[in-house]
Write a structure and sequence with these properties.
The complex is a heterodimer. Chain A is α/β, with parallel strands linked by helices. Chain A is built from 10 helices and 10 strands. The N and C termini of chain A lie far apart (about 40 Å). In chain B, helix 19 links the parallel strand 17 and strand 18. Classes of the chains: A alpha/beta, B alpha/beta. Chains A and B meet through helix 6 and strand 10 of A and helix 14 and helix 16 of B.
């Protein structure tokens, strides 16, 4: 796997030429998860049970602060959330990351997610996952779905141990838009031809920089916006209307 | 041909105003003296026992063995069914398709045929909902087959189509895999106007993009003289080739039906009649309806017309081989629809109603207004178009900038992003169609939501191509804005008087005016005036 600027290329990556790119948020968009589920799993699956309990307990105590941060600033929320990973080794993150993918993420992939990504490839689009989740999990999802690259939050490690800080840029809210603009520039994509997909109002900046924004199972605020600006609203968890069920 | 056909009325000083559709509203207009008004023919009598007629057709088919003789236990049968785009609005139950399907299933059950699938032949139309399917197939059939063995065709399903070959003119033919691999396909058709049915049913309804793009394109439409006359339709010629290629490999038994034009039951049936023939009470009722609709909100107006199914009745049914069956049904269809007139008009007046084949349960958006104008109303003729080449079409519609978000989102993008760049169908086809065809979000909406396929707005625009090439101007009366008509290439007028004044500026002196009083549906059988003799200059 090679890293180009923020995007990490997957083993399954197609070589192009691409007509454009499709940028996907992940949690709530392709998978029926949020950032909290995988974090709880990480914290509860440490090498020693006491450590798991302590970490989980600390995270619970930080809950109100995280809730407030979520209301104010998505990036601050991410920073508080990932501070709970402080002291976990890189090896452990990799091992538990695979478990999180297999036990939490994979069973919750929306039934139409794979077809949508295949459709993007059919349209010669480079598929990039852009998410606040961690690379330790998303690398597996990206390979599983056949995405070409992923851009995730990344923990800082010192001597193989997480410091509890996130590397810059933090993939959240308006920052996602800047990351996409940069990625499109590096890969020579015309943003007007690129597609974006998200479920959350917090991703409006990301959806606004691409020419073709799409909403998947959007929250109520994003749904309202989608109605006002005629952005397609998709439900990829529904069976196709055609063909036998 | 005769000028005194009872459905063609000439306005005189004692004529009442005419009441015309303008979307979901009705407007009362005073037409100039001398204007010809074409009305639909009164509904033909329905078949006295349509179920018996269906049974008779199945047992006495044209050009094929009776259905029962083709059946054997263990065979694989697919019943393909026309979708909700016809008739308009949806008909009162039982739908003719229900009567046919029930009779067919009785035969299949008698012969122990168990592997049966029923597929709604939607092509790139929106998928029908479970309730809509129940409405056309009936409760019993729906209960027995939905959703595992009764479903919409999905033209984008991975592996869902089977390639059958390429026609001599290069159309790649692929159809629904289940149908292609069946021992017998039974196509249940409802022909509403004369361009429906025949080879088009299977060659459009159960195919995918590779096939559709071969005949749904600007070049084919430009070469099509008349949609409603198969022999003069380049589009129909291509369909025939596609259909024949399919039938070389798939055993198809066609069952076609057609209905009369009884679109309105009581008390709305006054809408179908000549205003001068209404009693005073009926005329007052009609004026009351005009006033009521003026003040009701859009949704309520739409509901008044849409929620009440039309009392159409079956007037003909035939079964067997495609061509004899289709010809028989076309004859019945023409008998109901054709109204003869002599000579084309310099100015045509066309009310645009609330409904088209592509907006059942949704608003008639601006693209569909153009489809109705230049696609359908211009083309609802045999012989020559109603309006002379270069003449003016005056239409009535609010042209509201509104698109149904579930059904027509790709239409909105087509209208707002592409049409302002160009109205040239060939340029739209070449520059943009491919990207829309593959738009992953829109394709997903077509597959899992209620949306038309993203290529559909292109097809709609192409549909108006020969109308656009023929007409001179289109003037909209009653538009609630200027920019929508502007994007479509139309002018606007505040009233019919103003529109006529504008139209006269580019018309010959003392222009002939014809009003095509649609709803219910009708077709003009136009005998064009003979061309004037060429000017000759005698040599001195």
């Amino acid at each position: 796997m090679a890293t180009t600027a923020y995007a990490t290329k997957t083993a399954a990556a197609t070589e192009g030429p691409w007509s454009s790119a499709a940028y996907f948020d992940v949690d709530g968009t392709l998978v029926d998860t949020n950032l909290l589920g995988p974090t709880a799993w990480f914290l509860l699956n440490q090498a020693r049970p006491q450590e798991s309990l302590i970490r989980f307990g600390r995270a619970l105590l930080g809950g109100p602060a995280m809730a407030l941060a979520e209301l104010r600033d998505r990036r601050l929320f991410n920073e508080l959330l990932y501070a709970n990973y402080k002291g976990i080794s890189w090896d452990r993150m990799e091992v538990v990351g695979r478990d999180v993918f297999e036990d939490i993420v994979e069973p919750r992939i929306f039934r139409g997610a794979q077809e949508l990504i295949d459709q993007c490839h059919k349209a010669d689009q480079r598929v990039v996952l852009v998410t606040g989740s961690l690379d330790h999990v998303i690398q597996h999802l990206a390979e599983y779905l056949g995405a070409d690259a992923y851009i995730t939050n990344r923990l800082e490690f010192k001597d193989g141990i997480a410091t509890g800080k996130l590397l810059r840029p933090v993939v959240a809210g308006p920052e996602k838009a800047g990351i996409i603009v940069e990625d499109a520039r590096i890969h020579d994509h015309d943003l007007a031809k690129c597609h974006g997909y998200s479920d959350s109002y917090s991703d409006v900046p990301m959806l606004s920089v691409v020419g073709h924004p799409n909403c998947i199972k959007p929250d109520s605020k994003l749904r309202q916006l989608a109605r006002a600006y005629a952005w397609p609203v998709l439900d990829i968890d529904r069976a196709p209307s055609g063909g036998p069920r | 041909m005769s000028l005194d056909h009872p459905c063609v009325v000439t306005i005189d000083h004692s004529s009442r105003p005419r009441v015309l559709f303008s979307g979901t509203r009705l407007v009362e207009v005073d037409l100039p003296v001398g204007t010809r008004v074409m009305y639909p023919k009164p509904p033909l009598e329905g078949l006295p026992d349509p179920r018996a007629a269906v049974r008779y057709a199945l047992n006495h088919p044209m050009g094929m063995e009776p259905l029962y003789a083709m059946l054997k236990p263990g065979m694989k049968v697919t019943i393909a069914i026309d979708d909700l785009s016809m008739p308009l609005p949806p008909m009162r139950r039982p739908d003719t398709r229900q009567m046919v399907i029930e009779a067919v299933l009785k035969h299949l059950d008698d012969y122990a045929v168990e592997d049966i699938h029923l597929i709604i032949a939607t092509a790139f139309h929106r998928p029908m909902t479970s309730d809509e399917i129940r409405h056309i197939v009936g409760d019993k059939v729906h209960r027995r087959f939905w959703p595992d063995r009764l479903y919409n065709h999905d033209a984008e399903k991975p592996g869902g189509l089977k390639y059958l070959g390429t026609t001599e003119d290069g159309i790649e033919v692929e159809i629904n895999r289940r149908a292609a691999e069946s021992d017998l396909v039974i196509y249940v058709n409802l022909t509403f106007v004369t361009m429906n049915g025949g080879y088009k049913s299977l060659g459009t309804g159960l195919v995918g993009y590779r096939t559709l793009r071969g005949h749904h394109n600007p070049s084919t439409i430009r070469k099509t003289e008349s949609y409603m006359e198969p022999e003069r339709s380049h589009l129909a010629h291509k369909m025939v080739k596609v259909g024949k290629l399919i039938e070389e490999q798939v055993n198809v038994f066609h069952i076609e039906t057609t209905v009369n034009n009884r679109m309105f039951g009581k008390p709305l049936d006054i809408l179908a009649r000549n205003e001068d023939d209404l009693s005073d009470a009926e005329w007052s009722g009609l004026q009351g309806l005009v006033r009521t609709l003026k003040w009701l909100p859009q949704n309520a107006r739409q509901a008044i017309f849409e929620r009440v199914p039309a009392p159409y009745e079956m007037i003909a049914v035939a079964a067997g081989a495609c061509e004899p069956v289709h010809n028989y049904i076309l004859e019945a269809c023409e008998k109901q629809l054709l109204v003869p007139i002599e000579g084309q008009a310099d100015i045509g007046i066309f009310p645009i109603p609330y409904i088209s084949p592509y907006n059942v349960g949704a608003f008639l958006n601006p693209i569909l207004v153009s489809v109705m104008t230049e696609g359908y109303l211009h083309n609802l003729h045999k012989g020559s178009p109603i309006v002379k080449k270069g003449g003016t079409m005056i239409i009535f519609h609010p042209c509201t900038d509104k698109f149904d978000q579930d059904q027509h989102q790709a239409y909105a993008e087509f209208f707002h992003k592409l049409l302002p760049q160009t109205r040239d169908a060939m340029e739209l086809h070449k520059r943009f169609e491919r990207d829309f065809a593959k738009h992953p979000g829109y394709v997903q909406q077509y597959r899992t939501g209620k949306a038309y396929h993203p290529v559909h707005p292109f097809y709609m625009w192409y549909w108006g191509e020969n109308g656009r090439a023929h007409r001179g101007r289109v003037i909209v009366v009653g538009a609630d804005n200027e920019y929508v008509p502007g994007i479509l290439g139309y002018e606007t007028a505040k009233s019919l008087d103003e529109a006529l004044r504008m139209a006269r500026e580019s018309a010959p002196e003392d222009p002939s005016i014809t009003c095509f009083r649609i709803c219910p549906v009708l077709m003009a059988d136009v005998q064009a005036d003979p061309a004037p003799p060429a000017l000759t200059v005698e040599a001195e």
